[in-house]
Structure prediction request, 150 residues.
Amino acid sequence: MKHLIYLLLVRDVLNLAALSLLAWIRHSLLALLARVAIAMVFLQSGRSKVDGWLTLKDSTYSLLREQLALLPPELVAPVIVYTEHLFAALLLVGFLTRFSAIALLALTLMTQVLLMPAAWLSHLTWAALLLFIIGRGAGRISLDHALGLH
Prediction:
């Protein structure tokens, strides 16, 4: 009888360990996938607004002049472009992940309300990924985890 109880206990411990490992893999891989997916969206968007390394295109200013009459494009364009580049890069490596996701979510909301209200479906998708990252964190495959910032 003692051996049976011992075997059942060992089985339960192994099951819990396997489930914990599976949960870790699932979250870490999902978090990595979410970070890479949304970071690439913002990097691609940011890269489309610049020539060379980070020289803003004239078309970026023109677009903002047409769509955003409230604020001067000379002020808004660099903020948008540098936000897209910086926080997307941070998401890719998983550093300051929640803060970066919050910054990109704010940019998404601003874009939705002020610039492109018709693109709500894309923005909703981006917001869902960013909210997942904000809520669950970067996962173990990140600099945040390696540095103990999670």
